[in-house]
Each structure stands twice: as C-alpha cells, then as structure tokens.
Amino acid sequence: MKEEQIKLRTRLENYTPDEIGATYPFTKRLARDNAWTLAYAERVVTEYKRFAFLAMVAGHPVTPSDQVDQAWHLHMLYTYSYWEDFCGNVLGKPLHHQPTKGGSQERDKFQDWYGRTKESYLEFFGEHPPSDIWPDSKKRFGEDVHYIRVNTKRSWVIPKPAFIEWDSREAKHLLSRSILIPSLAVLLTILMVTLSGCSLSISQQTVQAFPVLDFGSFLQFWLPSLAIAIGLRFILKYLEKVKPSDEESSEINPYELAFLSGKKERCITVALANLAHKGVLEIDKSEKTIKLSGELPDNAHAFERTLFSSINSGEIVDAETVRERNEYNLDSIESGLFSKGMLLSDAARNRVTFIPWIISMIAPMIALAGVLFGSFNGNTSEMILYTMVGVVVSAIVFLRMPWRSFLGDRKLSEIKLQNTHLYSAPYGKTSEGASGLALSVGLFGPDVLRDTSLSEVISVCLDGDSSEGGDGDGGCGGCGGCGCG
Question: What global pTM score does this model have?
C-alpha cells in the first residue's frame, strides 16, 4: 500500500460513528433497525469502513453489500457526523450515494461493480470478505433486494422454508437437467401405481379414501421410495455444484481443509495443536484453559498469527473465548471455501436435506393414515411400530444437513486417501513431504493426539469437534459516486 493509503486505513480503523457518552449510539440503532445482534452490527460497521476505504483507493466504482449499505444509509442520517467528520476529516473528500436507475443494464452494471469490489477487498486486505456480510452476487442481487419495512407491532413475520427459495432462473436450470426429470417421473409412477388401488366409497357413515394396506404392501412402497429419496439427495447435491471463482481453486491450505472436515471448531483445534507443538501455548488439562508461553515462529500460518494476537500476554482463556475472538478470521476461511465452490449455501443445504426427506416420509404417512382410518389388514400395533421405525430411519438418513458441496467432498476424499498414514502417525510427513501435524488433526480430528505428547489439546476441544457453505440497487465510485446496495 502507498503511504497515503496506509494513513487513510489507520484513520478509518480508529474512527467510530458512535457518539461518546450516547445512551443509544449508532451501532445499537443499526442492530435494532435490522434485528441484528450487537456483535454482528459491530462487524457490519467494520465492513462499512473497509468499503469506504475501497471507495477511495480501488480506482474503480464500488458497490456495497446490503448489510454494508444499511450502515451507510443510517450514517447519512447523522448529517454532521457523516459529512463533516467522516467525509471531511477521515476520508478527506465526499462519498456520495447514487441509487440505481432500474433496468437490466443497471443490474448488470452493479453486479459487475460488486464483483470488482470483492476482488479489490481481497487485494487490499489480503483476505476474502466475510460471506455473512458480503454474500455472493446471486444472493446480493436476488434475495437481498426484497427487504421492506414491516411494523412488527401490527404484523407477524413468518419465514419461508429455505428449500423453496429457488428463483425462476434457478428452477428452470435445475428442471432442465435431464437427470432430475427421470427421477421425478419414476417417483410419480410409483405413487400412481400405489394409489391406483384407492377406492372412494361414500355412505352415510364412512369415507374410504385410502388403499387397503398390509405390512407387505407398505414395504413394497416404502423401500423403493426410500431408495429414490437417497438417490435424489445425491442428485440434488451434484446439481448444486458451484463453479469456482478462484483460478487456484484446486489449492487448499491446512485451515481450509480443517474447515471442510470439521467446520470452525476443527480450525480452532488445529491451531491450538500446532501452537502447543511449537511451544507457543500452554494448556491446563484440568482447568481446560489456555495461555501464551512463548514467541510465535516467523513461519507461522496467518490464522495462527491472528489467534496468537487474540490472547493477551498473561491472560488465561478457554477455547470458546478464542473462537469468539477469531470469528471474523474463521468467516474469512469460510468465504474462501465458498469462492472455491467447496461449500453449500444455506438454501442449497435445505434443499438437499428436506426434499428427499419429504419424499421418504410419504409411505410412513400413508401407512399411518391407513391405520387411523381403519384400512389396514393386520396387527395395528405392529404397523404403528413399523411406521415409527420408518420415520426414525428417514430422520437418521436425511436430516443430517451437509455443508460441503460435491466438489468439497471430492477434494476432502482425495486428500484423506493420500494421507491415510497420518491417522496413526500424526507427527509424520504429508504426501508432499511437509509436517503432517496440522493435516492429521484437520483430517481426522483431535483423537489422533490421544496417545501423544499433545493429548491435553483434546481437553480444550470445542463442542462439536470430534474425530469421525433482480435488480441491482446501488454502486459507488471514488469521491463522486456511490449507490445503495
């Protein structure tokens, strides 16, 4: 960075829109107006300041995420703070807000600006923007442009299930895939054949609208539908493949690999194990606490550096505190994996989970209805038991939500296959000849340390880590133009 850019970044990092002594400062209002936690609002303010930095130095028009734009909108209401203090004293020039004029050309323009903004973010800050504040363009210019003000004193707000949130273009894309249509056709055929035995007889006392069932017919329907649901789960996950945005998408560092294998908890475990191995951390097994005990080596990974700096000298902390202080950096790892196409979005995870689960539940629900309406031939208690078993099996098979994409699964499997020897030898070398400790813990979990000198790391592992991701509405440019996001 140039000297002027460094000075600007320092001024922005030291700036706060919160008025000293105010009982209801800017950040609290931002959190309230958007139904955010205070911690999340504080992170959005940090991203807003980074966005302002990019607006000054990127050399091209920039567009914020919707979250950042909400902070920007609110800040402009504090007219003196925004124009005199922020623009005048911190930025050194005005930062104007320019909303979209509407239309497809404007949408395409702002999508391009948004992509370039995220590229410049990586260039200037050396990390990907956090995905929960800077979502991908599809969400930014799709879902995020549909926010409206709602008076919650007058209206209830009920969220839609995420698995039905396909937009029309995405639905057409998925339904046009020839592999999905035959699967649905087979499912419908089974349903039609099964339900063809239904008879509707109306009398003064009875309405019979269910097939006459026995346990054999239940299995004949349930087992094929279960197999179809399992196949559909794999198909849906395959169809959710995301084209990597990084040219170096095949490269993955140990902490990205740890995230793929065990999410954020695994990243913390790997860092603690590595730093303890290097003599940087001291772990109290009985108290389950951590404190610094040495200097950080020059060759330490960037994530280890940020984790090290989050613990004050002489301070005693637990692993949960370490995680909370490094949430932003964990989000950066997650964002990097999203950009490489290795994680599923929340909506994709719900689709892959719940659509097959619903299909697998059709047979048990029909059987249960048959029992309730008296159209079952056999022991009713046994049929109810078998139906409940079907419900439990469906839940076990389908309600464990995936987070890795098809590409992420394949990458993780490849690296595990290349380094299976590290499961029994965590201090060994990787397939490429490097130290294998981080890779061993990242791939196989903390239990690989159980009979080693680092066994105390297991005592501080976080819960969840064990050994088994429309219309554009704004843009901005330098001192002259900014738009809402």
Answer: 0.54
